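SEVERITY: medium
COMPONENT: batch folding queue
REPORTER: lab tech (J.R.)

DESCRIPTION
The queue accepted two submissions in a row. Attaching both inputs and their returned structure tokens so the on-call engineer can compare them side by side.

ATTACHMENT 1
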Amino acid sequence: MSRIHQIIIGVFIFSVIPAMLTGQVEQLGDQIEKSAEILETELDYAEILEELTELSGSPININNINEEEINTIPYLTSVQRKGLLDYLKTYGEVLSEYELQSIPEFDSVLIQKILPYISISAPSRVPSPTPKNLIRFGHHDLLLRYGQVFPRSQGYLINDSIEAIKPDSYYLGSPQRYYFRYTYTWFDKIKIGLAGEKDPGEQFFRGAQKSGMDFYAACLSLQNVGILKRLIIGNFRASWGQGLTFGSGLSLGSVPGFSMNIPMGSGFRPALGMNEGSYLRGLSATLKIKHIEISAFASYHARDATIALFDTNSLAVDEVSSFIGSGYHRNAAELKKRNAVRELICGGNINFSMALNQQLGFKIGLTGIFSKYASPLIPKVHPYNQFGFRGDQNINLGLDYQVRYRRLYLFGEVSRSQNQGMAWISGATITPDPRICITLIYRNYQPEYQNLFSNAFGQNSLNANEQGIYAAVNATIHPKFNLSGYFDLFSFPWMKYRVDAPTHGEEFGVMATWQASGNVLVGFRFYQKNIQANGAEGKNQIMGNLVDHITRSYRFNIDWITGSRFSLKTRIEVKESGEATMKRPYGYLVYQEAHFESLKWMEDIIFRFVLFDIPDYASRIYVYEPEVLYGYSVPAYQGKGIRSCVVLKFGITKKIDFWIKGGISYYTDRDVIGTGLDQISGNVRSDVTVQLLFRI
């Protein structure tokens, strides 16, 4: 790190430390950062953020709550959910938030966390669904979003000769990103939605995208109508048990880390996300008859894939070598992969649940999934992927269970694929005291297990070729001091990509938060991951030698709420990664964020300034960035430079909100930014996002 950077960082830190510090550590952002780092891919977190944002915007009335709704309240453990349910059954309605402290499993810290997601009022009555009431009590949202990066990258700088000779060397469309989403909701009974997105580089109302947006999602959902628990026509997501047999969409609890306790619900959920990879589109329904739930679905649509073999006469696709989940259709090469294979997925779940008394309850479920592809998936054979899925169909069967006994919660699932590969996961959550929660998870996913829609806990993006034991503790040692830690010991019985032998590793971390005063919160986080990977290959060497790699991350953050309208947030993070026997370079990142609220017609201003000096890709640091409503950004910082961004929210009227976000990145260690068609000449990159939300 240069001398000038050291001086800037020193001045920056010491100028804000005396005054720094905002409400709570952003655990949601922390877990998204961790997921992005482990899975190393661009994921669509919009649905998760949207679900939590909508929950805070329309809090659940705990006096009119059922067991499914109570499972969607963030930060509650299974024992705390059960304690709230028991209290309501025993004493009836809760009269105020202060009464929640009478629940043995609750404390003041937990109550403050869940208050944005709950409301306390008399139970409401839903009117009959007459046309008049559907219009009168219906709620409409229309969201419009525009985004663009400046200056234009190489993919947009073309001339006539390049256009004729190299059709894959440029983008066919404009650099703008367009997104819209419309939803109609009527209490918790009806939801209708339509959304669409055009990615930068894709055409708009011309060429390959004559219908406008490159991707559309739509859904119609009916809920809690007699024995019909939910009916969805259109796009949806689904999961049961631990997500081992079937878990579409994302789960923030699917990677090791500090316990989040943010359940996203099980069963079917309507979906308007722009995940163009493993989405579901078709028909799904769940019936609930006393203690039994029966769910069934069928999804059929085209998927992007790399074509390996096709019939030159009929132009039919005979084989594909891989599925593509990016959703980009910007040039001729990407358009060749668009909708290359048709996918049919059908199946369902049947489960039985019962609470024998307030101390004992259980749930057991059976899930079956059949998947069929119009063209077989035949990837190129390598030693590491010889157990991977090949063919045009698969069947997965699984059995899951949950048992609650007093302060003990047991859960697990066992699953089998068509080739007889097995996978299972089992765990327990123990709450010996309301202030202490202990989680233990064991998993064993055989290399032969094949499932493209598995989303259970683990270190890999696919639940296969992995064994591990995970333990986590979350303790409120003092009303103002919380300590949590975890340890994950894992192994991979077979080879992995760029790992030419079975390996093992461990990951552990500790996080502490201290409420230093009524408006100051101090946090510290450390985690370390030890793995094995191929080292440098020698001459004429077929297989790489395994070497130990270490990754360590240190984070210190302070939040300060100076008043009802102003808060500051500071983070300092240091990371090192590389071979255990070598000197590892350190990456540094410091940011300061200021948040102003309720400034008359300007409702919010969030400003962030970031300094970073991160020498290599292995030490990159993911940071969850402020965004417009329902938006998300998790950039991976690498290199040396400065990043600043600002998000402004304007309340134009009571029913119209307007956001604008601007960001600029300045690098001091390079003359170009990015690679390939996304390469930008120069060392400055800026971006802008504009969003309008109409509520009726």
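ATTACHMENT 2
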Amino acid sequence: MLTVSGTNIISSLGFSTSENFDNIIAGKSGLKRYGAEFFDLSEPFVASLIDRERLNVEFAACCDVMRSAGTAITDLEKAAILSVYYANREAKVDLASAKTVFVISTTKGNVDLLRDVCTMCELPVQAYLWHSAKIISEFFGNPNTPVAVSNACISGGAAQIAAMRQLESNDFDFAVVVGVDFLSQFIISGFQSFKALSQDVCRPFDSLRDGLNLGEAAATMIFSRPHSAFAKYGLLYGAIRNDANHISAPSRTGEGSFRALNAVINHQASFNKAEIAFINAHGTATPYNDSMEMIAIERAGLQKVPTNSLKQYLGHTLGAAGVVESIISLKALEQGVVLPMLNVKNLSETCKINISQKLQTTDKQYFIKMLSGFGGVNVALLFGKAPQNITQKKKQSNPLSCSESFFIKKQINLAFNNSSEITDLYRSLSVDYPKFFKMDNLSKMGFVASEMIFEGEKQRFVPREDFAVIGFNRSSSLDVDVQYQNTIRKGEHYFPSPSLFVYTLPNIVAGEIAIRNNFFGETAFYVFQTFDTEQIKRILNSAFADKRINEALAVWVEAFEIKMQWLVVNELRNEGMKYS
């Protein structure tokens, strides 16, 4: 278990955890209606936005004196830095220590900077996710390479799991998890292209729900190994599962969510489901997401557990959602309450789960946080009260150290000069998979390499939950980001395309492979400045901390340079095999 030693939320409802929580308890929503001209869009939208003036005033008051001269910091990075600063007022850990690691969760980072970039111009370095992660961690003098997680809408949950594994490896004592995303023409137009946005405050799990609202937030959780100084509440377990269904539509049977929930509630034989106080669902208020979650909760046997969503208070805050909503739910557990849904009026007769419609008290000790996203990704996190009288355990050698946990079964290195060479290789494989031609270059490269990796494998396409797909690169999805940005430049050619927008998420490459091969295990994506062998080994090693994962497909895939490296690794527990 990891204890939570400090938290902060910066959102439309306030600049502290308590301010946000108190406003939610009071039934206040930060969602407002904005005109199309606000982000130069084609139609109005409802969203929650951070007060930029307050952000800059508070950043100047708290953090400007710490800033290195000449360092350019965007508003998104200021919000993340300020959130860490406030969270550490409570945690009081050494952020500059080599034993502290930063994990940054964001779906799109500073993507709005692409608006000012011409088609043939060099991209500003601030557009790279690794750069924002570096700005945030180096601001506090941290010497370690930050981990940047970009796993669609589950990024905030995936980041917490990554942090948990980093600490359990004994490499670090503290982990700072920061989730942050700001809204822009790019992001809102993409969701508008899917017809996914409601023109009113959203209504999760309501039978008349008609879409989601988006939001902005920066939120921080500082985790530590449990000891008496921080014996409050913590993260007990987390699991990521793919539904292997579709890159932009959830499984109608809730397959990925159910498997993630099942992994969490069965992580140890002694876990008592009767002690779950509530479930904080993803609850986006879209017809398919909410239906899928209801089915998954029922399949997991949790239909009597009170279930809520926080989207009608703050909107969907993208890469920050998993962090924001975990903090609010932790605060509720600490206060002994179950938060109500704000805007549910018409529960469907087909709703078989226990939707929380009024504030209620609880003395139970756990809650579950659920998230889902494009690429078929789903996550479940289990939080609970820390045991009493915790003492610091003596560190032991890590049984899953980088040098002993896995070996490379098969490796492929590919390089391409252009996209036509990728297609030529695909055709040479004699594979019949028409979806290939709809993919972006990142996914096409991943697909052809995986076909080569799995060639000759026995019992291929048999459903597997023990297989993970882990992606890495430097540029995230900037290749497609630039293409999509060019489709939404105002004028006669304004055309936000849903089929293009979905590929502006780098984790889609892992989703495509999972769908093709019936992989229901973990899928994730990480962004680093360079091909960092030690970081990649550490991430791969940590994937095997999920005891159901026995094999993983790992990829470094770079669409900007159109080259990649693939590794397939098998876990060998306690067999002394060396990484090579």
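NOTES FROM REPORTER
The chain has two domains: 2-385, 406-571.
No errors were logged for either attachment.
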